[in-house]
Structure formats: C-alpha cells, structure tokens
Specification:
Chain lengths: 337, 337
C-alpha cells in the first residue's frame, strides 16, 4: 500500500442515511463495508444520519438499530476502521461507550460551528476510551474564518486529533474554503479535515481547494449518497486525486465498481441538484428550514426563497425555527408598506 | 437588465439531445425556450446532439426534424438568440443557410482540437450570412496549450467572433483549464469561451477557473441535461455567479423554477456520474469508444478501463476505432509475456 497523502473517510453509511430515510439494513451495511474494505478505504462512518442516538421522532427512526449496523460494519471490515458520528445533545456518553465496545475506532464529535464548548466532555471521553477523535464544526460557512479558528482551537485543546471544517449546507465558495482551511493550518497543531456538500455543485472544487491549502482528512460519499445534493462523490474524488498524483491508497477500479454495483442499487432515487437543495446551498440555511419556509410563504404569500435567503443573512440556527414566521411576517410587511 | 459580465449559452436543447436519444419534440423545445427566454438567457442552442445534419444511423436519428425544432425555438423566443451547432463533415453549408433563413442568429462551428482548418469555409459563410460565429475546439484536453492556441488563432483568422475551449470528455483538471484559457486570453483579440462536462465532477470548478482567467462566454445545461455526466448545471451556475457578484443578467429564481418544472420532467433518467462517464473522463476518450472497448475487453479478457486509459494515453481520435482492437491485443500480449 502506498502512503496515503489524503486520508478519506467514507460517509455514505452515515450522511447517506438521510437520503434513504435511515433505512439501511444489516445486509446493505455488510456488503458496502466489505467492498469498501476491499478497496482499501481507511475509515468508514456508520451511524444514524444525525449521529448516535439520532433515531427519534424528531430526526427520523432508523429501520435497523444503529448499534447492530455498527457491529455488522465492524465484523465486515478487515482493514478499514469503523467511525461513528456523535452530536452532543442527541448522542450520549453511554452511546459512545457502547459503540466503542462493539468495535468503533474513531468518533467524530459534531457541534454547531459556534458551540465547540459542548464537545469537551465527549472528546475527552473518547480519548480516554482510546479512540481516534475528530472535532466536527458544522455549518462552518456561518462564521468568519477567525471565529471558526477560535472554535477549532477549543476542540484541539480538548484533545481532538483532527478538526474538520464542515460545509453542512453546501454553501461555501472555493475562496471561502481556502481562507478557512489555511487559517486553521497555520494555527492548529492537529490535522485539518474538510467535509463538503454538493448543493452548489462545488463539492469537488471545494475539496480540491481544501487539499491545496493543507487539509489531509477528506470526506466522500460513494455515488453522492448523502444529505441534500450529497457529498463529494468518493469514486470520482479518488480518480481525480490519482490524476493529480495525490495518493489516497484506495483502489480506483474497485471504488468505481462498488459505486455502480453495490451502492447505486441502494439509492431510492439518484442524487441530483434539485431546486430544494440548490436553494438551501444558495441561502446557506439548515435543510430543516425548507418545509417551514414553504409553509410560511404560503401563509404570507411570499416566495419561500426570499424567506430562506433572509434567514441565511440573519444567521438563524437550528432550534430557532420560530424565527421563520417572524421573518416571513416582516418580509410581508415590507411588501405592503 | 444589468450588464452581462458572463454571457451564457444554454445547451440543454443541443448537448442534452444525446441524453434523451435525440427525442426532443416541438412542444418540449417551445416550452423550454419560452421559459429560458423569460429568464433572460441570452443564447439558446438548438440542434441534433452532433450538430446540424447529425440525424443519421451513425449518430442517431432525431425524433423530430431539427429544422422544425429550430423554427419552434425561434418562434418561442422574444429576446433570446437561437444558436446552432455545426460540425463540418456532418453538417453542410446548405444546412447552415437553412438554419439562418429560419432565424438562427449564432452558429458554433465545431472541429476536433487539431482540425481547426476544416472550419474555414463554414466560419466565413456564417460571417457572410451576418451570423454571430463561434469556433468550438472539441476535445481540448488532448493537446498542449500551445497547440490549442495555434488552432484558436486559425479560427480567429477565419473570422470567428469567439473561440471556445471545449472539454468534450470532461477530462480537464482546473489547472489545465487555467493554463489553456489564460494563454488564449493573452494571444487572441476575440472573446474566449468555455464548455465543460461533469464526468469528473469538475464542471463547476473548471467553469469558475475559466471565468477567473478571463473567459466571458460560458455554456451551461439546465439540470445537467447533456452528454456523459452533463455540463455545468445552468441554474446552479447562475446562483454561484450571483454569490460571487458576477453578473449574468439571468433571473435566478426563474432558472431554478424552469429547471424543476419544465426541464426535469423531460429527463429520461436523472444525470448522475456513473461508472461509464467517470471512466471516460478519467481516460479522456470519446464516448463512442466505450462500447467498443467493452467488446474488445471481453474478447481479450481485459478490463475495459485498461484499454480506454491506454487509448487516452495514445491520443486516439474519433474515426480510429480500429485502434481499439490493436491496443487490446497488445495489452493482452503484455499480460501473457
């Protein structure tokens, strides 16, 4: 195996859970992990789309208990390490202990980009458990690079081995990725990672920009199986990096084959950039806002996009869904006056 | 209308013809053109996928005569100019005269990147007819930038108003696009354009690179409706350019709406990056080679990708399909020895 210059984490079995309504089966996970392992993918993330403990009325119930899926993944992998995602407040320390016990080797502790401080307990526990630990700063487009660095330094101080810039809404432009990654590279001693979404058809452009600026941990999803318009398409990414002579250690032909033969049949519908995902990326807002904005738009006779764009400008975050009505009524008022 | 800094040509009704087996109807063309016109798209290309006269056993028969489609487009457009594509050898001067007579305002005369000299007659005729004229250098990844410039200068000398770098196989990497566009910008007095394909998920990255280097004419296809993995997705492109404060003069909301409501229902299947299109982009070969390579691979018990990659390295061009068997037998021989 060649040395890996870029280390890829495959997220289709976690982020892709959103795209198929959390319906992964043990058999699907086993088959996908076996083929990814055979292609020499170093890390494979398996969890509910919203991380450990995500199965709920609010985030959608998993068809199969995620611990069963994680266990199946661990059993199917000979070389690949199985990773889990944990959002403090959704997943608990007990969930993390259980995942570690059944064989998860890496955890990514994810918080909103301004709330790194809530990751302290979980990052520290993960290190105590001997797990490789990643700090995962979601919605990284919502704050200036300096604020992102401040939060990344917190995660580093808690013991994270890597800090990720996570473009949850697929809203970052390439120059914004460069600015963020380069600032983190200059100021962190730990590794820097990048997780893209393709809402603006920029997942590959942003990923290459991140790698050029020094990110060495990169997320991909086979066949774009991820939330919204999906992530950076893994089999395409490894092909492009090969053309650029950047070593991933992954077998390109095997990745192409498993994408077509093992993963594509799992998709309920192919991953395209639809109007919904485009609007979310353009406005830079949470996907959970979409339905609320459409409802508010109907009530106030507005274009839902105007509401979403205004929410993006005001940097409204998850949990502030009541702001959607406020913004809508305000926009409607402006129109009348 | 704001001044257009980037002038977009919508190619879904021409390049997209490949994706739906040349089955466009007059009604579809009328509806798409009306909506694009309403969104203020400046140029709309309408032709068989292989240009005027492409309807044939070799390239696939059009369901509806393309002159009827062009006429429908001209009648549906109030502000947009209707463009046609012409590949000398497939389309004739008579085809061009007929298209101009029924109202086409722009022609793009397309040749293989090393064969600009065959465009002379058609470019000159188009200028005599008073048409806006574009030289369209296909498979631009196959030659070094200096050779591309030489060919572009020929097209300029024949009277082309714009010369396009055309990444027919979706094989160019962003730095290769930069090198080509910047060299053309430095040495041509006419406008420079860029046409991407998304086989390596780089259509948007390459398009932005081209614009940064000074390309002002850009092709897009709504909902990625184009050959292979499609082109730069127009409604996404105008949204990204808006975020970058680059004026296209196009109404973003209307583009998003027509993509979802008018164009998406036309697609026979959504445009994804499949194994086939990925391999073509990775190898940098003609799409027509794919089936031949699979047949040769079966005969010689090879992986078809090895054949395609070798064909790409040897820069085999369309019309040299007999080389596919030569390469396959040679590769098989290497394996035995």
């Amino acid at each position: 195996m060649s040395e890996r210059e870029v280390v890829i984490t495959e997220v289709a079995l976690r982020d892709g859970s959103h795209a198929i309504s959390h319906s992964f089966t043990t058999e699907q996970v086993t088959n996908v992990v076996k083929s990814l392992d055979d292609a020499n993918v170093p890390y494979i993330e398996v969890s509910h789309g919203d991380g450990l403990g995500g199965s709920s009325i609010q985030y959608g119930f998993s068809k199969t208990n995620e611990m069963e899926l994680i266990e199946a993944a661990v059993n199917a992998a000979e070389r690949s390490a199985i990773a889990v995602l944990l959002l403090p407040g959704i997943g608990t320390v007990e969930d993390l202990k259980e995942a570690e016990k059944i064989g998860a080797k890496m955890v990514r502790v994810a918080t909103h980009v301004t709330e790194a401080d809530v990751s302290k307990q979980h990052i520290q526990l993960a290190k105590e458990l001997g797990m490789e630990t990643v700090g995962f700063l979601m919605m990284s487009h919502m704050v200036p690079a300096e604020k992102l660095l401040e939060q990344a330094l917190l995660m580093e101080s808690y013991g994270a081995d890597t800090v990720y810039v996570v473009d949850s809404a697929g809203a970052l432009l390439p120059h914004e990725v460069r600015e963020r990654i380069s600032l983190l590279k200059e100021n962190l001693s730990v590794k820097v990672g990048f997780h893209a979404h393709n809402n603006l058809s920029l997942a590959m452009a942003n990923t290459l920009a991140a790698i050029e600026e020094g990110a060495t941990r990169i997320d991909g999803s086979v066949r774009c199986l991820g939330a919204g318009a999906g992530n950076t398409q893994t089999e395409v990414l490894v092909s492009v990096l090969d053309r650029l002579n950047i070593q991933t250690g992954i077998d390109i032909y095997k990745m192409m084959d498993l994408a077509e033969d093992i993963v594509a049949p799992i998709l309920q519908e192919p991953q395209e950039i639809t109007k919904g995902s485009l609007v979310l990326g353009y406005a830079g807002v949470y996907s959970s806002f979409l339905l609320h904005a459409y409802r508010a738009a109907e009530k106030y006779r507005l274009d839902p996009r105007d509401i979403l764009i205004e929410l993006g400008k005001r940097k409204v975050v998850g949990g502030q869904e009541d702001m959607i009505i406020d913004v809508a009524s305000e926009l409607a008022g402006y129109k009348i006056s």
